[in-house]
């Protein structure tokens, strides 16, 4: 299994690996993007069914990554030759087109073209033409394509054309790591890569002076290119260890993520498991995951609507409690056990494909 170390794919990969352990599945995780921190090495070593092969190759969405993408492909094929895995599970696109022994699983967690459309409101510029072609080739060569929401799967079809056989498998988090404390404190929490315009934390920071409650933001404020985001209207908590962030979520009354682009939203799931009321960006993927009254939704460009939603929750304890209960009830459906079972079914199909299987 491949994983980048920059975003939420790392968390997803470890959660899936942990859930696969009870089925006797051993995972070798091939990491790219950046070296692992000591904290992440500790997380990996805690899983008895996980081995890690570390690299620093640039990721396909980074600036001019193609020499690294090619070198990473050679490295991955050498790992396949040495390890002889039953299944190759790629959490990226370009390497799907490599000459694998069996067609791989390609999981689409996000992509530049759908990000650009959602965040910038226009098509990605021509400089991403090579990225488009590499992603499209990787998807076409996949034995199976999976996405964490139907909205993300449809975005892949829209930007890259018809897909091979495909599935939606929702992401998951184990509730045990997110205790739901009964005493909630009057503050609003948000978390994520602060430099990512998709998270839209800048809108939350902009309206913070108009809110009755303080706003706390956890996450990396430094872009991989080196520049740093400053948000003077909120309290910056920095990049927190998962256990520390879970404690903040157990205290917060409200979790806000007015995202412009979020193919699933692991942080919202963690907050819901912790007992926070959710205020989320009104986009198709978050509606898909958190519909049926499990969150308040606000247009990502509407600061007034965000203020109104957050203020309504700060004033109305009954509404806040009811919304938090609905969010946690829905969150408990997204279990690692269910996610692992769905992936095991896909793995079995990849190992023993049925020629007559229809393509959705």
Strand content: 15-25%
* pLDDT averaged residue by residue: 94
Shape: globular
Radius of gyration: 20 Å
How many DSSP-defined strands?
13
Query: Briefly, what CATH class of the largest domain?
Result: Alpha Beta
Helix content: 40-55%
How many structurally independent domains?
2
Low-confidence segments:
none
- End-to-end Cα distance: 24 Å
By CATH, the topology of the largest domain is Rossmann fold
Largest sheet, described in full? 6 strands, parallel
Provide the succession of SSEs.
EHEHEHEEHHEHEEHEEHEHEHEHHH
Q: How many DSSP H or I helices?
A: 13
Strand order of the largest sheet: 10-9-8-11-12-13
Task: Write a structural description.
The protein is α/β, with parallel strands linked by helices. The protein has helices at residues 9-20, 38-45, 66-83, 112-120, 129-140, 150-160, 201-207, 242-251, 266-274, 284-290, 303-315, 317-331, 336-351, and strands at residues 2-4, 27-32, 50-54, 89-90, 105-107, 144-147, 166-168, 185-191, 215-218, 235-238, 252-257, 277-281, 296-298. The protein has two domains: 2-172 and 336-351, Glycogen Phosphorylase B (Rossmann fold), CATH 3.40.50.2000; 175-331, Rossmann fold (3-Layer(aba) Sandwich). It contains 13 helices and 13 strands. The strands form three sheets. A six-stranded parallel beta sheet has the order 10-9-8-11-12-13, sandwiched between helices. A four-stranded parallel beta sheet has the order 4-5-6-7. A three-stranded parallel beta sheet has the order 1-2-3, covered by helices on one side.
């Amino acid at each position: 299994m491949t994983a980048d170390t920059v975003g939420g794919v790392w968390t997803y990969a470890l959660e899936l690996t942990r859930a696969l352990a009870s089925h006797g599945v051993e995972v070798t995780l091939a990491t790219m993007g950046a070296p692992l921190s000591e904290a992440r090495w500790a997380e990996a070593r805690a899983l008895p069914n996980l081995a890690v092969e570390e690299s620093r190759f640039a990721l396909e969405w980074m600036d001019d990554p193609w020499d690294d993408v090619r070198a990473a492909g050679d490295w991955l094929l050498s790992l396949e030759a040495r390890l002889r895995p039953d299944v190759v599970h790629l959490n990226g696109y370009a390497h799907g087109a490599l000459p694998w022994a069996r067609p791989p699983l390609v999981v689409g967690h996000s992509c530049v073209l759908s990000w650009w459309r959602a965040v910038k409101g226009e098509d990605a510029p021509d400089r991403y033409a090579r990225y488009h072609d590499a992603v499209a080739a990787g998807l076409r060569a996949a034995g199976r394509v999976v996405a964490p929401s139907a909205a993300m799967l449809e975005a892949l079809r829209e930007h890259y054309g018809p897909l091979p056989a495909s599935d939606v498998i929702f992401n998951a988090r184990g509730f045990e790591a997110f205790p739901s404390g009964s005493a909630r404190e009057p503050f609003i929490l948000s978390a994520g890569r602060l430099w990512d315009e998709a998270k839209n934390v800048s809108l939350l920071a902009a309206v913070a002076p108009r809110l009755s409650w303080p706003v706390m933001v956890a996450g990396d404020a430094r872009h991989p290119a080196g520049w740093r985001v400053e948000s003077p209207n909120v309290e910056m908590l920095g990049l927190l260890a998962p256990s520390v962030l879970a404690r903040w979520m157990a205290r917060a009354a409200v979790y806000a993520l007015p995202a412009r682009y979020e193919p699933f939203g692991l942080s919202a799931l963690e907050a819901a498991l912790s007992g926070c009321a959710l205020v989320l960006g009104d986009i198709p993927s978050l509606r898909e995951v958190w519909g049926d009254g499990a969150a308040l939704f606000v247009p990502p460009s509407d600061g007034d609507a965000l203020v109104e939603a957050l203020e309504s929750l700060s004033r109305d304890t009954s509404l806040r409690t009811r919304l938090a209960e609905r969010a946690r009830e829905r969150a408990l459906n997204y279990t690692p056990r269910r996610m692992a079972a769905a992936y095991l079914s896909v793995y079995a199909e990849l190992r023993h494909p049925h020629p007559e299987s229809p393509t959705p």
